[in-house]
């Protein structure tokens, strides 16, 4: 059941246009006040989502993205009022795997003006989703081979059974109890990228590139504050597939 749920959520996540667009609008200081999403498709995913309980799961996952958007900008949403949000999914067997998605985003702009963005997308739903299933397996297997050991600890730590690093590939991310939930797509991708960089001893990407902005290398007397570091040991039970040992990557 868990696999079927994750597979369905991965299919849903192929339509991440809304997540990216909302993240962009809010980051640019534009306030979405109405988000309406209409979809129809004729594959097994569409049939499952025609059931009330399955549709409710999709509706909740989409609303979580909106909640994260409101929480991320207390200036735009100072009153805490959420945008109007409506999701419609219809099962149309004739279109089979060719999913149609139509989305409308209405935002408030400067001097009480309004801006409306309407998107139409037609895609082969399963062809977009299949690579996500492969990536889920590959990334989960990689996490199984990695341990982290802090200074002074006798035993290395393994990843918890809830791999929140997979959030980028899923619509409704699961996290361990007490862990912040991140729905923003770019932040989820940056997590994976910086995780892989740490495995090979590289610092996390921040895209500041200060040396190019001041016209000189940032050296000699300009000791930039560094992130805390910790030793990481990467271990695999099969010596033939062992990953290189990593020492002191930036956190």
Secondary structure: elements and pairs:
Blueprint: H1 2-12, H2 17-27, E1 31-41, H3 44-49, H4 52-72, E2 84-91, E3 98-108, E4 114-124, H5 125-144, E5 147-148, E6 157-158, H6 185-199, H7 210-213
Parallel strand pairs: 1-2
Antiparallel strand pairs: 1-3, 3-4, 5-6
Helix pairs in contact: 1-5, 2-4
Written description of the protein model:
The protein is α+β, with helices and mostly antiparallel strands and 251 residues long. It is built from seven helices and six strands. The strands form two sheets. Strands 2-1-3-4 form a four-stranded mixed β-sheet. A two-stranded antiparallel sheet has the order 5-6. A hairpin with an 8-residue loop joins strand 5 (147-148) and strand 6. The longest helix has 21 residues, at 52-72.
Short structural description:
This protein is of the alpha+beta class and 251 residues long.
Q: What strand line-up does the widest sheet have?
A: 2-1-3-4
Instruction: Give the termini separation.
Output: 35 Å
Cα Rg: 22 Å
| Class based on secondary structure composition and strand pairing | alpha+beta
In N-to-C order, the SSE pattern is HHEHHEEEHEEHH
Q: Helical residue percent?
A: 25-40%
The largest β sheet comes out as: 4 strands, mixed
Throw out a few tags for this protein.
251 residues, alpha+beta, four-stranded mixed β-sheet, two-stranded antiparallel sheet, 6 strands, 18% strand, disordered N terminus, disordered C terminus
């Amino acid at each position: 059941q868990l696999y079927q749920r994750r597979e369905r959520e991965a299919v849903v996540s192929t339509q991440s246009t809304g997540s990216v667009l909302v993240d962009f609008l809010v980051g640019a200081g534009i306030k979405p006040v109405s988000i309406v999403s209409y979809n129809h498709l004729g594959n097994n995913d569409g049939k499952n989502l025609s059931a009330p309980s399955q549709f409710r799961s999709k509706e909740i996952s989409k609303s979580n993205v909106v909640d994260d958007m409101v929480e991320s900008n207390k200036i735009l949403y100072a009153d805490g009022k959420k945008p109007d949000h409506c999701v419609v999914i219809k099962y149309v067997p004739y279109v089979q795997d060719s999913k149609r998605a139509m989305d409308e985003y209405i935002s408030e702009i400067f001097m009480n003006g309004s801006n409306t963005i309407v998107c139409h997308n037609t895609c082969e739903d399963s062809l977009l989703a299949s690579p996500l299933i492969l990536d889920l397996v590959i990334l989960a297997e990689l996490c199984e081979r990695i341990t982290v050991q802090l200074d002074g600890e006798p035993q290395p730590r393994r990843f918890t059974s809830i791999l929140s690093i997979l959030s980028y590939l899923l619509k409704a991310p699961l996290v361990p109890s007490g862990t912040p939930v991140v729905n923003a797509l770019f932040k989820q991708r940056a997590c994976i990228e910086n995780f892989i960089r740490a495995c090979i001893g590289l610092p996390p990407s921040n895209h500041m590139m200060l040396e190019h902005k001041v016209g000189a290398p940032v050296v000699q007397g300009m000791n930039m504050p560094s992130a805390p570091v910790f030793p990481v040991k990467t271990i695999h039970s099969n010596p033939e597939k062992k990953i290189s040992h990593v020492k002191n990557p930036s956190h």
